Amino acid sequence: MATEEVNTLTTVPRTYDDIDEVVNDINVNDNEKDEDSCQEYESDVSSCAGRSTSDECERVVQDMTPTVTQSADSLSTDAKETDFLYKMVDLIFREAIVDETQSNNRPVCSFLSPEELCASLTELSIGQEGSDANKLIDFAEKVIKNSVKTAHPRFFNQLYGGLSKYSIAGAWCAEVLNSSMYTYEVAPVFTIMEREIYTKMLGLAGFRGGDAIFAPGGSISNMYAVNIARHHKLPQIKTKGVFSVKKPICIFASDQCHYSVQKAAAALGIGSDNVISVGSDNKGRMLVSKLEMEIEKSVLEGLEPFMVVATAGTTVYGAYDPIADISVVCKKYGIWLHVDGAWGGSVLLSKTHRHLMEGIEKADSLTWNAHKQMGVGQQCSVFLTKHKGLLMSCHSASAKYLFQSDKHYDVSYDTGDMSLQCGRKNDVFKLWLTWKAVGEVGMEKNVDHMFALSRHLATKLKQTDGFRLIMEPMCTNVCFWYIPPSMRDIPETPEWWQSLGKVTATIKKLMVKAGSMMITYNPEGSRVNFFRMVCTNKDTTFSDMDFVVDEIAALGALL
């Protein structure tokens, strides 16, 4: 059959017209074959109609299926791997998902020191021969046991926590399909799905008609922002480099901004010293008057301002910079406004709390991490900009082996040249599946619940002896000290404050060793160590908030 098809091309095409004619013939033949195949398939399937058992139908399907011959060794290996996979999935359901994350009788962590843990992981080294599958399962069980259960309702340690089971399903499916997201031809469904998610998030930010791209975390999304803001101002740097500009360029961000801004400036050749720190108020919000002063000062010093980074939900205090007021200053001086909403951007899902990002539609770009308050697994970060085509202009390298312009489909779905990466992981399916499952109403309910938890805790702290709330929460961060009975009703000298900082660290140590919960702590400015509690898990309850207060009081009572 194959020989006959080849022989139908009796002459070699000599001109472009001849080539076009041959291509058209091939397309017509392909369409005819597709129609024939469909008719043949429908005929075979219809032949099963009315039969009393499925056996005869199965035989029809078997007759249509080509036989693939495998060696016994290959089948044996495949069977072993499949058996291992089933056992691994069972272990995950039994130990990592159900038991560990749905019962407060289970610990958040089972802490061992690095030395103790290294000594217990005797199977960690990789040998010359493969390991027995049952031993791998045993080791995996040990891995789960000694890992922090970040989906536990009492894990409050970082700006993520909780995990939707829809997200787990999406992540598993994405891993099995192993798509790379650079072109439609290798990720057809998921590139279309990305476009749907981008459109949704751009609309929520007021960036309709803009562009977006998934990135491996908020830090890289912020680096995208710095890179395209610079490209917008000084496009020659892409090809000529940083030495092509006549004077140093600079960025402005509050003294509470995420450190990724400094890292991006260092990595892109701007220099971390050229990230100018702007003072904040007593709630951690950028002072707009200070911003304008710093911009004018930088110009007098021979710098060229090109970007302001506002923060929607600072790492420590959860503060929201006044975006609308900052946008006025940026417009006045012709400066790009980026909003780092990696932590607090999900308030855009809530009618009650989205006012915290008032003026977001006036910004040029936004970082938004779905893995922080949307219940999606790490990592799931999206960079968004209102400027259509700028991501492509800034990052494209036009690799001809990936991004051919004469492909047989709409190449606008090939987003790889918009990204700094080549291969890019499928982060969209876990987000889409989670969002689709709960809908807009469900997402809003979850965000509102996390905010309600933080307000409940703040009220409880103010009503309980020994606790001192540092400030009322803006996002879901609740910052506070616990003062043990031995330190109450005495002068609060500098030595007293130093001792209080040690109390915070000691209580953290005790809670981790008990495995009862995890809350981080840190100093900030003149403030000694304090607890920074965050609410990120939709499964956390008001009872869990009460437990936080009771547990800290119990652990610190004898200090």
UniProtKB/TrEMBL annotation:
InterPro entries, per database record: PyrdxlP-dep_de-COase, PyrdxlP-dep_Trfase, PyrdxlP-dep_Trfase_major
Superkingdom of source: Eukaryota
Keywords: Decarboxylase, Lyase, Pyridoxal phosphate
Cofactor(s) annotated in UniProt: pyridoxal 5'-phosphate
Gene3D superfamilies, A to Z: 3.90.1150.170, Type I PLP-dependent aspartate aminotransferase-like (Major domain) (3.40.640.10)
Pfam annotation, one family: Pyridoxal_deC
Keyword ATP-binding: no
Family classification: Belongs to the group II decarboxylase family.
Protein name, as recorded: CSAD-like protein
